[in-house]
Amino acid sequence: MRRVLAVDGHSMFYAQQKVGWFFDPRHLLELAAEGAELELTSAFWYAGLKDHSDQRPFRDALTSLGYTVRTRPLRELGGSGGSDSAARQSEPRQSEQRQYVRANLDVEIAIDLLTVAPRTEQVWLLSGSRDLDRLVEVLRARGLQIVVISTEGMVARELRNAADRFIDLASLRPRLEKGEAQQQPVFSRS
Hints:
The chain is of the alpha/beta class. The chain has helices at residues 9-19, 25-33, 56-65, 85-90, 106-116, 133-141, 157-162, 173-176, 180-187, and strands at residues 2-8, 39-49, 68-73, 75-77, 99-101, 122-126, 145-150, 165-168. It has a single domain (2-74, 102-187), classed as 5'-nuclease (Rossmann fold).
């Protein structure tokens, strides 16, 4: 069986916060590649970035492990609700009020999974995004088995229902949890 792994980094960051532990991307790759007659053909990680250098050590670590890392800039909203540059210039403290919202990587996830679909039998999708339910339906119609991995309360009912199987991330803790000594450098945020 040929398997593909796709990790929605934004969704998984919040899912991991909810369960109270972080998984080691290395352990996830090992688990995804486990099994007789199984080949992990691709592993994708999708992340939103505040700027080009955001999460650089983490992204480099993911790449060295074998993940294909796809990024997009986070959308930035000003505290007063506008993103007009003239308004920012007239309010010098506007930069302190910036709020970052999700970088929507659903299109990238869809393109990658549809691209690899002809040479894949199973997809492990680590996401909770409702926006991916139609993608999952299309992939299933093409004969792929879809396993959604997320956390109770953080996965859209539509996505969960569209998948062949749902695995609660909490149940994988013994296999995936990141050791404390390794956690800080890889997941540190500057």
